[in-house]
Design goal:
This protein is of the alpha/beta class. It has 20 helices and twelve strands. It has four domains: about 130 residues, Response regulator (Rossmann fold); about 160 residues, Rossmann fold (3-Layer(aba) Sandwich), CATH 3.40.50; about 80 residues, Helicase, Ruva Protein, domain 3 (Orthogonal Bundle), CATH 1.10.8; about 60 residues, Arc Repressor Mutant, subunit A (Orthogonal Bundle), CATH 1.10.10. About 0% of the residues have low confidence.
Length: about 475
């Protein structure tokens, strides 16, 4: 991302000098000779930084008055003041009014660049902190796992990320679609700029347009910058895009067609450079057919489709995921992490995980907080089964045992073998070779045993890639 910097000075040679210094290291410079030009540029699209001279000749407002006007309408705008006739009191006044720093002319190029870099870095950190505060706490911040489907997913992200194409990320709730969107952003040329994630379900019909496109300043009310403008130069993620209201869908189609928009109550069109990524848990083609989703919006978003696999389809990763999530949650809670024993991990691997990663995080947190035993002891299978809601305790488990014990020996043995083999087939995602290796049988012998017991492997959830 190339940061845009506005240089405001009444002397053309000073503007040219500063622009040359900035452009030599990769910034994009814009220039204004007076307050009117400066405010017009900022009104069109806020730059990353304004370098503003205190003394502006032939200008309606001087530099400090221009600073006050900018800070009034754009409270987050970073401004660095410059002056050849600076006094200590002037610097203090500028700082109190919201200027990031004050540089005296003549200045050295390295001093200017250092100040500019600090101002932009601080702005970026402030934006990141705001984004973190608005996000729900998550126990997973990266795409962990080496199941074939996850290896393919990461390869696709590495390939598509730098392309700047629009991407539609699909998958059931809780699989980590927003993680994929963030990974695409990190793999792009926009990685140093913002990624703004918009929860489409949070938009109401009245305020949705203002959230998306912003509101122009009016008497006594500062301008509100919408999420599209906030993401300029970076990435905007429409999280669960099917939750967008019909009116908003139409406005977004228009924006995607022209890459420009008008703020609410605004007269001027705003050009933007934003990469769009959308996520959805629903079948968008079915939503289009039912008339609930704008057909043109679907085709504009679905340039590169990426499907995120459900957790049951990557059971081979559950041990690694559990360990990663345990470390993160333990750090958040200020507790030592707990290991999970072999019988407990077997139960984790055999579970269906309808809630995907959100369910896994909830179960791991439950185990960390409630599992009996010392922190050095591994968590056993019974504790895991309780956390998964698979048992109500010894009574229920004994009832099942009595049911088997009341059968003839042959039937009881077959019932146990059937339950045992189905458990491990499910645990290993239907992989016959891994199941045979674990239970200590030849692959062909396991096939014969499953046939005798009437176990159909086609009904067992399969790992993708096996």
């Amino acid at each position: 991302m190339v940061h845009e910097i506005l240089i405001v000075d009444d002397e053309a040679d000073i503007r040219t000098q500063i622009a040359g210094i900035l452009e030599d290291v990769g910034y994009r410079a814009r220039q204004a000779a007076n307050s009117s030009e400066a405010l017009e540029v900022v009104a069109g699209r806020q730059p990353a930084l304004v370098v503003l001279d205190v003394w502006l000749g032939n200008s309606e407002l001087d530099g400090l008055e221009t600073l006050a006007a900018i800070r009034r309408d754009y409270p987050d705008q970073q401004v660095v003041m410059i002056s050849g006739h600076a006094t200590f009191d002037m610097a203090v006044s500028a700082t109190k009014m919201g200027a990031y720093d004050f540089i005296s002319k003549p200045f050295k190029a390295d001093v200017l660049l250092h100040t500019v870099e600090r101002a932009i870095r601080e702005m970026r950190l402030r934006q990141e902190n705001q984004e973190l505060r608005t996000q729900a706490p998550v126990a997973l911040d990266e795409l962990v796992g080496n199941a074939p489907c996850m290896v393919q997913l990461r390869q696709l992200i590495d390939k598509v990320g730098p392309s700047d194409s629009r991407v539609l990320v699909t998958g059931p709730s809780g699989v980590g679609k927003s993680l994929v969107a963030r990974a695409l952003h990190r793999a792009s040329t926009r990685a140093s700029s913002r990624v703004v994630i918009l929860n489409c379900a949070s938009l109401d019909r009245e305020g949705g347009e203002e959230t998306l496109f912003g509101v122009e300043a009016a008497a006594g009310r500062p301008r509100h910058i919408g999420v599209i403008e906030q993401a300029h130069g970076g990435t905007l993620v429409f999280d669960e895009v099917t939750d967008l209201a019909a009116e908003a869908q139409v406005r977004v189609v228009g924006f995607l067609h022209e890459n420009r928009f008008r703020r609410v109550n605004g007269r001027k069109s705003i050009d933007t450079d934003v990469r769009i990524i959308a996520t959805t848990r629903r079948d968008l083609m079915a939503e289009v057919s039912a008339g609930r989703f704008h057909e043109e919006l679907f085709y504009r978003l679905n340039v590169v489709p990426i499907e995120v696999p459900a957790l049951y389809a990557r059971r081979a990763d559950i041990a690694a995921l559990t360990g990663h999530v345990m470390q993160r949650i333990a750090a958040q809670k200020g507790r030592p992490p707990r290991a999970i024993g072999a019988d407990g991990m077997a139960a984790m691997e055999a579970h269906g995980w309808p809630g995907n990663m959100w369910e896994l995080a909830a179960v791991v947190e439950r185990l960390l907080l409630t599992a009996p035993g010392s922190t050095e002891e591994p968590i056993d299978g019974e504790s895991v089964s309780k956390a998964l809601g698979q048992t109500d305790g010894d009574g229920r488990r004994w009832d099942r045992a009595m049911e088997v014990l009341n059968r003839p020996l042959r039937e009881a043995r077959e019932a146990f073998e059937r339950e045992y083999l189905v458990f491990h087939l499910t645990r290993f995602g239907g992989n016959i070779s891994r199941t045979a290796e674990f239970v200590g049988m030849d692959r062909a012998a396991l096939h014969r045993k499953l046939k005798i017991l009437g176990v159909a492997t086609s009904g067992v959830p399969q790992d993708l890639g096996n």
